[in-house]
Design brief:
Tumor suppressor candidate 3; 4-stranded mixed sheet; 12 helices; elongated; alpha/beta; Glutaredoxin; transmembrane; OligosaccharylTrfase_OST3/OST6
């Protein structure tokens, strides 16, 4: 009987201590800890954003402030490769547009702690690229405040481009945050136009007594051909995308001037295409000259053979380049 009362007394003591702990401990301790952690993360992100509009992150910062909960803010991340040895000119151009967008958000009246702009460079966070199975740059991703990123949270860079206005529209669709893009003034185009007008005006003034050159058909034809060659060779694509001049294989040192994909090109490749088109055009001009001139028959025959040789050889070369870029291209001539 004494043993029974001893056990009962011990149990009551344990229960008393348990209830005492329940009374003394503050309610929702885990929840408060979670709120404190979230507050620390938001304060840290705000502090970084106050220093620069785009927060640079390595692997540890990315996992802590972007991937790990709790988080009540959205994060836009640009995955890029800006180091000079990477030779990613597209990354530099995309970074400039990204900076314009981030600055527009940072200095707008609607700025809040609900959206942050960050960047992860490959040389500072290669583990992040590996974790996300990412093998290309630049790439823009949205990490929502709740849940995991969906397919639409990856920006379609190839189809839309990386202009700040397009990025702002995509962000508005994903976060309902409207960003009005403010670009710094750029007077280079105005200065170039003023110089061109001044040059043309000065030339006309100096030749004001002899303006017959304006009606020179050959001169206008040459100018028109230069514009056509520039446009058909892909110069505008180079201006928009900013590809490298060529590619050097780091393993064997071999330099490639022709890109192996039909979706891209090098600057050197556009120069090669321009020269090939010019040579083919020259051949066609010689053929026309041989057919329409009334000179010596032997001279006309030589001109015809030279023109035909230019057209045949360089057109064959052009077809071989098309076949190397698009392996299903069915046409070839002389050169395989």
């Amino acid at each position: 009987m004494a043993s029974f009362w001893t056990k009962t007394s011990a149990n009551l003591s344990v229960l008393s201590i348990f209830f005492l702990l329940l009374i003394c401990l503050p309610p929702g301790g885990g929840q408060k800890k979670k709120e404190n952690l979230l507050s620390e993360k938001v304060d840290q992100m705000m502090e970084w954003s106050s220093r620069r509009s785009v927060v640079r992150m390595n692997g540890d910062k990315f996992r802590r402030f972007v991937k790990a909960p709790p988080r009540n803010y959205s994060v836009i991340v640009m995955f890029t490769a800006l180091q000079p040895q990477r030779q990613c000119s597209v990354c530099r151009q995309a970074n400039e547009e990204y900076q314009v967008l981030a600055n527009s958000w940072r200095y707008s009246s609607a700025f809040s702690n609900k959206l942050f702009f960050t960047v992860v460079d490959y040389d500072e966070g290669a583990d992040v690229f590996q974790q996300l199975n990412m093998n290309s740059a630049p790439t823009f991703m949205h990490f929502p405040a709740k849940g995991k990123p969906k397919r639409a949270d990856t920006f379609d860079l190839q189809r839309i481009g990386f202009a700040s206005e397009q990025l702002a529209k995509w962000i508005a669709d994903r976060t309902d945050v409207q960003i009005r893009v403010f670009r710094p003034p750029n007077y280079s185009g105005t200065i170039a136009l003023a110089l061109l007008v001044s040059l043309v005006g000065g030339l006309l003034y100096l030749r004001r007594n002899n303006l017959e050159f304006i009606y020179n058909k050959t001169g206008w034809a040459m100018a028109a051909l230069c514009v056509v060659f520039a446009m058909t060779s892909g110069q505008m694509w180079n201006h928009i995308r900013g590809p490298p001049y060529a590619h050097k294989n780091p393993q064997n040192g071999q330099v490639s001037y022709i890109h192996g994909s039909s979706q891209a090109q090098f600057v050197a490749e556009s120069h090669i295409i321009l020269l090939l088109n010019a040579a083919i055009t020259m051949g066609m001009v010689l053929l026309n000259e041989a057919a329409t001139s009334k000179g010596d028959v032997g001279k006309r025959r030589i001109i015809c053979l030279v023109g035909l040789g230019l057209v045949v050889f360089f057109f064959s070369f052009l077809l071989s380049i098309f076949r190397s870029k698009y392996h299903g291209y069915p046409y070839s001539f002389l050169i395989k």
